[in-house]
């Protein structure tokens, strides 16, 4: 197999768990395949103990839905699958059904770069049960990872307090697609550029970088190495100064900076990649200033994350560009976001929608039933609460109480006329036809920044953030509670 040519063969339809296909077959066999259903994709906890999450991955989801067909190779593979007794797993009429199947669902989603919170649907899919089911695994795969990394990047960028953050993660990322998706999501979350050249080409993200220790080590002396680099890139010199002795390295960088200046060029800065980054960055700053290089930047790297950057800021480190790799793109302290995809309603034989809940011992795991919507309420540009509601219970109402889905003692009264109301779920597909234009990646990145400005800094602090209120409108809360009691048969005891 040639990875560059053969891996996906133009189709991602089999990027799913086997049980989705066995359920799809069983839906088809029992005549339920075309029954209308609504599924919601949501998570239950912000990652990294964060007070917020940044939505990302929608452009991939849209592409997946637009190409949601089984090609000949996929169908040949499925038709050759055998049970242990030698019979085929999927009968040929089902294979033909899959061959004809096209994406015909309605899909709504929260736009990429939107600040979101637990229990809010990021994606709502409405359509034939079989299609909704077959989308589950890929939608979760895409959304969980990119949302996780965009959130991590936003935290790193918040810690950097406006300094540039360069994403350097490719070498340690989770494989090829993990790296590409991570570079994209990191840019959305707040990084300024990536070292990943393929991500630059594919997504239009700025690429940038410095040079490695190997460049220095390939010469007899560090000074020769800096001079040769300056000859090759007189406008792009950020010298890595810690290969042998950091202070001597800064001295050599200044010497070459002076040579560049004589030629009318400016050294951009130095990079420090080991040792005490507060101590050495401050020494670098002093030495550079004293030599007349006040504009030269100090870049720091080496296993950085939002917490080390915060600590270095507190220590008054003189760093103004942060290179962040491993801990960002691998989401080191929380390797997965736990978003799930749950059936919220199904249309019965009489054409009525029946809300559905998955009952759990843990109330955090009980989903929100019905075809709900989400509104964010803002006052003077400041977000005060998100409300999950059934539109039929909004009509004619001027206010509502929202109730925390986990702790019903937490409530908030909202008079609608006091607030600007923003609907978070946007129409993306109608009957399988795309009705949404994906914004440019720079626009998405800006959306993250603009959205974060709507939230008080208490929700954005990195540890023990103040919890932003998200609640179920009281009628929806009651419907959910009644449904849980009904499914648990409490009313029969
Ligand atoms: N002043 C500082 N305050 C807090 N953390 C720091 C400070 N300076 C460096 N660090 C962090 O401490 C860790 C140092 O790791 P480690 O000791 O493995 O690296 P090193 O020995 O300095 O460098 P290397 O192993 O790459 O030569 C890194 O995560 C780095 O970002
Ligand atoms: O530390 P990260 O956040 O992952 O950022 C990327 C790292 O990759 C490079 O070196 P590499 O780690 O390959 O080698 P080194 O640690 O020996 O310098 C670079 O010098 C950074 O240290
Ligand atoms: O350009 C850099 O400095 C760079 C790129 C990848 C990893 N570490 C550093
Ligand atoms: Mg390293």
TrEMBL record:
Residues 167-348 form the Nicotinate/nicotinamide phosphoribosyltransferase domain. Residues 14-144 form the Nicotinate phosphoribosyltransferase N-terminal domain. The keyword Transferase applies. PANTHER family: NICOTINATE PHOSPHORIBOSYLTRANSFERASE. The lineage of its organism: Bacteria, Pseudomonadati, Bacteroidota, Cytophagia, Cytophagales. GO terms for cellular component: cytosol. This is Nicotinate phosphoribosyltransferase. Transiently phosphorylated on a His residue during the reaction cycle. Phosphorylation strongly increases the affinity for substrates and increases the rate of nicotinate D-ribonucleotide production. Dephosphorylation regenerates the low-affinity form of the enzyme, leading to product release.
